[in-house]
Amino acid sequence: MVRMEPDTDYKKLNATLECLEKNLIQQNSFRFIFVRGIIYGVGFVIGTSVLAGVALALLLQLFPFASGFIDATALK
Asked: What are the pLDDT digits (tens) for 14-32?
């Protein structure tokens, strides 16, 4: 194991902390939070639509008499 000089260790630690601070400021910016919220919202809507479609298809397979009800309500 190579032992580094204390001055070099402090410089490396300081550079790491500055990098972490920069990343933290970026992640807490309004723009970053807004874009992340939009992406999560769109993903939620798409995922919910897919799950609802799959659930509806399964229910229609299990209960075929319900398809007449669904067709009747869709035509109104």
From this structure: 999 999 999 998 888 888 8
